Structures are given as structure tokens and as C-alpha cells.
Amino acid sequence: MSEEIKKIVLAYSGGLDTSVILHWLKDTYKCPVVAYAADVGQGEELDGIVEKALKTGADEAIVDDLREEFVRDFVWPAMRANAIYESTYLLGTSLARPPIARAQVETARKTGANAVCHGATGKGNDQVRCELAYMALEPSLKVIAPWREWEFRGREDLMEYARSKNIPVPVTKEKPYSMDRNLLHISFEGGILEDTWREPPEDMFVLSVSPEDAPDKVTFIEIEFEEGNPVAVDGEPMTPDRLLAHLNELGGRNGIGRVDMVENRYVGMKSRGIYETPGGTILRQAHVAMESITMDREVMHTRDFLVPRYAEMIYYGYWFSPEREMIQVFIDETQKSVNGTVRLKLYKGNCMVVGRKSESSLYDPNFATFESDEVYNQKDAEGFIRLSGLRLKIARLLEQNRKAS
């Protein structure tokens, strides 16, 4: 197989795993390796990554700023759907993998590589998400998954290999859990978090203060939507990436967006995940409120019926599938009237909707009022109720007749 590999594009983070993978690829396949890093909001984690990759043996190192693309083309479509996995998870990692994989494939085309490599383990969801994206976008590419191929069993094996090959690896204090960050969230899993009875340590959190330590003063914000997309906060228009980062700051400061859940991985096992998604939590609640006055009831209910399946597709790695794209077209059609402004109150971990307005609102106090009005005859409800309950009445009457006979 090694003779077939001419050039490899590695999804590179600069951490221990991908540093070892980079050197292992050079040793194993004897070909050029391009270290590719996508900036989807990791922050300081990308500092010095090009120099680190070249020092570790990469023939070329590339960093792409995908922050706006990530939010605009992946996060916003999911937000338009109110997508949520198992009623809890806002799909932060699931949504970040498709743009990274897409950019990795584009880099392979540009550099003439015929193989791509990822550092996902053989137990997690990310291996599926990456490889399904590769297959959908460029099926001719060969896929290398070191954790399914090499003989290393864990971190100690990697450290020993790194020492033996003089590989520069991070010297920061090892955390007793793993974490992954992007503009939508930070996720934590593994290590001490595998005990589902144990509360996460407070010093673990990065984006948010605890609700107990949040300010005693309420923060009011207003979010403006156009066709289901947030476009401004407190009257200030913002690019997608800036808007999400701004809401992360506001939400985190008020202790909003922490989640502790045990989820069902696609590969078949359960896994505990701790998430911080302050901006995403605010946006989902605001979007639901915006829809409540602008979307037709039956359109909303039909869309909502599809949301669990849509979220599952994203979680499982089928972003580039025809079924996800088909549902997205329907979802986006429902959003054409979702325009207006939502006012929210942020306070000690709570995000509360306190106002909504829209020029395309379907809410009319003349119809909703309990006072006297000219547009609704309350006697009409009698026939409506009789017809609605007719099948129930018939079923009970027949049952009573059978018992009587």
C-alpha cells in the first residue's frame, strides 16, 4: 500500500497525536506530507503551528481561516433548523468536521496529494465524519487512519515514540480529560469525566463562569434575524463569525450554555460529554421565539418532525449526503418569513425570551384577545369541537353497546 501513496495531506492540530502521526507518516509512507490546519475558532491553540509542523517534519504547512465559512455555511443552516441531538447537544464538534474535511480535500487537489489522513481514534464519531466527507467529495483519495493501523495503544506509547524520534511535543501540563474547541463550543470528554457520577471540576471550563458566579445584574440583548439567520445584535450588524463570538462572550459572562450529557455515539457506545455553547444556546432560543410569531403552524410542525432526523444526520457525519441537502432545502424554504427582532434577558445561567416583533408576524391581538372582537365568533368553536371529537364519541358508544349486549 505504501508504494501507492504519493503525497498526504494530514489534518494537523499541533498536539501530541498529530505530531506523532506526522512523523509516523513520513516513516511509514516515505512521501511528502502536508500539515493542514483549519482555523474554526481554536484561538491560541494555533499559535506557532506552522513552525511546529515544519520542525516536526512536514514538507509544507498550511493554515486556513475558515471561521466565517464555518459559521455561515454550517452553523447557521443548523440553527435555521433548530438542530439538536438527543434533545441536548447543539452539535458543535459535528458541525466543525465537514468544513475541515472539505478544506482538506481542496488542499489535496491543490497540492497534488492522493491521500488524506486524520487523527481520530477508532472509537469515536470523528473518524466517521471525516471519512464520509472524504468519500462524498473526492472518492479517489486514499484515506489513512493511523489509530486503526499502527500498534500504539495509548498516550504513553505516543510519548515514548516522540522521545525516541526527538519530536517536539507540547510541554503544557497534561489535563485529565480531552478538549476540542471551535467558534460554536468547547467539548470535554474522557479521563475523569468518564465517571458519570462525578461533577466536572470548575477549573475545567473555558468559555463560561458558573451560574453562581455570574453577575447579579440582568443583561438585556436584542438579536435581529433575516430569513432565519442572525444578522445583528443590539442594532449592530455583524459578520457570522463575529456575531457568534460576541454572543459567546455575553453568554459566557452570564453562565449560559453549559451541558453535561451522556450521548449515544454512532459507533454504538455511550459517551459522556461536557459542553460549553453559550452563543449557540442564546441563538437557538432566540430563533425559536422568532419562528413563534412568523411561521405557519403546520409548516412548523412538519419541519419539527424532521429535526431529530436532520440532527442525527449531522451527528453521524452525513452533512454531504443527498438526504441532508434535501431536508435543508425544505428547512430554508420555511425560513423566508423568519424576519424580525427578539429581546432576551440573560441572568445567572438563564436565557429568557422577553419580547419579539416582526413585520411578517402572524400574530394579531385582534384575533388572540379574550375581549370582545369582530373577527371571531366563539360559537363556531362548538361545531369544530363536535367534529374533532366525533371519532372518540363513536368509539366509546360502540364499546358501551358491545358491553350492554
Layout of secondary structure:
Layout: E1 8-11, H1 16-29, E2 33-39, H2 49-56, E3 60-65, H3 67-80, H4 92-111, E4 115-117, H5 126-137, E5 142-144, H6 155-164, E6 178-181, E7 186-189, E8 219-226, E9 229-233, E10 236-237, H7 240-253, E11 258-264, E12 270-276, H8 278-294, H9 297-316, H10 322-334, E13 340-347, E14 350-357, H11 365-368, H12 380-388, H13 390-404
Parallel strand pairs: 1-2, 1-4, 2-3, 4-5
Antiparallel strand pairs: 6-7, 7-12, 8-9, 8-13, 9-10, 11-12, 13-14
Helix pairs in contact: 1-6, 3-4, 3-7, 4-5, 7-8, 9-10
Characterization of this structure:
- The chain has 405 residues and is of the alpha/beta class.
- The chain has 3 domains: 2-77 and 85-174, HUPs (Rossmann fold, 3-Layer(aba) Sandwich); 179-295 and 337-357, Alpha-Beta Complex (Argininosuccinate synthetase, chain A, domain 2), CATH 3.90.1260.10; 373-404.
- The chain contains 13 helices and 14 strands.
- The chain has helices at residues 16-29, 49-56, 67-80, 92-111, 126-137, 155-164, 240-253, 278-294, 297-316, 322-334, 365-368, 380-388, 390-404; strands spanning 8-11, 33-39, 60-65, 115-117, 142-144, 178-181, 186-189, 219-226, 229-233, 236-237, 258-264, 270-276, 340-347, 350-357.
- The strands form 3 sheets. A 5-stranded parallel beta sheet has the order 3-2-1-4-5, with helices on both faces.
- Helix 1 crosses helix 6, helix 4 crosses helix 5 (126-137) and helix 7 crosses helix 8 (278-294).
- The termini are far apart.
- The model has no long low-confidence stretch (mean pLDDT 94).
